[in-house]
Amino acid sequence: MGLQDKVSTGLQGFDQAIDKLRLGDNVVWQVDSVSNYKQIIGPFVEQARLDQRKLIYVRFGNHDPLLKDSPKLTTYHVDASQGFERFATEVHQIIEQEGRRAFYVFDCLTDLLQYWYSDLMIGNFFKVSCPFLYELDTIAYFAIIRNAHTYSTIAGIRETTQVLLDLYQFKEHVYIHPLKVWNRYSPTMFFPHLIQGQEAVSITSSTEAAELFSHIHRGEERLDYWNVLFQQAKEALNQDESLQQSTKKRLMSVLIGHESRMLELCEEYFTLEDILAIAAREIGTGFIGGKSVGMLLARKIIEKDGGERFASFIEPHDSFYLGSDVFYTYVVQNGWWKLRMKQKTADGYYSYAAELREKMLQGDFPENIQEQFVQILEYFGQSPIIVRSSSLLEDNFGNAFAGKYDSVFCVNQGTPEERYEAFEQAIRTVYASTMNEDALRYRMNRGLFDKDEQMAILVQRVSGDHYNDVFLPHLAGVGNSSNLYVWDRDVDMEAGMLRLVFGLGTRAVDRTVGDYARLVALDQPTRIPPMNKEDRKKYAQHYVDVLSLTDNTLTTVNIDQLLTYNLKTDTSLFAARDEQAERRMQELGYTDMPVPQIVDFEMLLKRTEFPALMRDMLALLSRVYDYPVDIEYTANFTKDGHFKVNLLQCRPLQTRGLGRPVAMPELADEQDFFFAATGNFMGGNVRLPIDYVVYVHAQPYLQRIPQDKYAVARQIGLIGAALKGKNVMLIGPGRWGTTTPSLGVPVHFSEVSQMSVLVEVASIEAGFMPELSYGSHFFQDLVETGIFYAAIFDGRPDVVYHPEYILSRENLLTELLPQSESFSDVIHITEVSGMEIYSDIVTQKLLCR
């Protein structure tokens, strides 16, 4: 250790007592008041100025400034009210910018409680900042108020810092008691020291030490400030209305978020008692996230404004919430904060994401959090649960994040140890999904890449029951209060729509392989989208997603198999006999075999209150939100046909208006048109110019091996990036965004998000079939990004389709992407100056010329 690495505290006697400070030291003072801290800073700052050190003051507290402005002092004002991540990131950037051997004075850390309400997060801030300061050979002074923090917080600070000191004032004397001085030792170092000017006198006498310490109050084990806050709020329940309102507002700011339309609605509908009930079911501290807030608010609206209309039909919930601070603590305590800071930069946004994702799948949780996880599992017993993302930005006005983050079912079977491990891994999986490519690109495309995207988690009991060896709800799906994507001019757009499936709702929100959800226009529930009668079975649901109690996993079963189980209600509500198949079986003499069923929900929609109830529910929520809404729901039926709806989620529906009516060109000669059709489009009234068409040939695509099909999808992403800013129509066989290459091109949505128009073409000979996925996550993405969608069912009487209109023109693929020549048989790009696409919702006309 060279002399140049030793630094004076500004107090010569105390320098001798602890053998000075070392470059890299973080120095934490436990004090009774900020004024005591200010006194001890003085000699350090004066000495730093004499030694011509670079001196930095980080200002964030509500207390008076510790240092006066001067030419030799750089002061940074950091806004702690913006939350832990923003604050910690800004401090990290300051440290990085100021570089090596800077000397720091930080405001009193205890003041952060006024912004974060969490001792835990102060400890996390210290753990992420101090190692970085140490690496850069800085010296930094911090303070905490004695008896204001939990022992676990102090323990974390003691473990992280190099120097921990108690500062006492007793009988007008100042004492310093070193508690930790890393890599230094003397026989008297850890005695209290009386400071007299520049001298420091060790108090070795037992009489003097006892007199000093007997007068120092050491509190009992202290609650986290978060718990203190909510204890005080419980006491406010018995106080006057104005105190309850102010207390409620403060609690909402730490549980729900900052000023927003959602917060205004919560303030209107939640009572202080409601907020305390939410807090009682939170694990850790911090925000509960958008998905949790949306679910709770929607239920409260229905309870408060719905009256008797909904009371007997709503299934109660008993959800738990993992606060967003648990996510931060997971990252900090596993040592990944520095990697997260690298990932949050423009250069590292994508390049570090995969590494961080892999680490998040393997981390450890703090012991106190693990114990609370055990308690959750003990509460639910062996009931299946689902672990759902509930990020701060999710499900709010403006950003839905539909399907961007993972949800994980825990079937919850097996030993307590096995169930615990599955639950913990489900949480890791949701946390890691913040680094999924689609989530990253979504945030980037929405201008959110540098926003504080805190990940909370919603833990819900899965709605449903045991049937034989599987668990499922009878119905599930999504609903929209505004049905702007209608398939018939007679459909009332304001009545809303449902996307409805039998079993778990996973088949309602995803574009499922070979399966179709039932689309329900709530003004005419039994009316179906246009299709030939013989296609009724083809475009129905054939498989059901269920939780297997024997295999302990999410699985899929054939609908006919499931309908043989005792489903504890009348299954004719959901499925009807396939009369065509029954006639064929009779003709072939198969009279002993069970008749196949068609899941059409006809009886449900004709004879039960279900569609009317859902219409009324969507209308009420939309009226209160003063905005269209999008919900997820389940429903379960009893033997007598009574049902209960479980409202799982509610968010503002990202939607565009109809637009002005469009004057459609006359179809004089169909050879002048690229395509024309009736219905089967989404996106309102448009007249949109097209600059380029990107066309994927069905047969050459089909002939490629699966690996090459994925390569085609990646090429589409490159083309989208190359044509960014142009109006591009992407047209191809089957379903864009499918996970099954035999059904369409498996692009990620981020790879088509730059397109203006997306067209899916039916190819009978190749087996490709579009799906108008109203209400699915894919649908939500299209609407949010303003992409017009159309499906072309070539061969139908009302469809004109001339691919040669495009294919007769020069293929610009290799001109645009010289390295893509091997894809020129599959992908055709052409410039189409003057092309326009027209649509009109009222007449349901669509054409492109």
Automatic annotation (TrEMBL):
It comes from the Bacteria. It holds the Pfam family PPDK_N. This is PEP/pyruvate-binding domain-containing protein. It comes from Marinicrinis lubricantis. Gene3D superfamilies: ATP-grasp fold, A domain. Residues 288-666 form the Pyruvate phosphate dikinase AMP/ATP-binding domain.
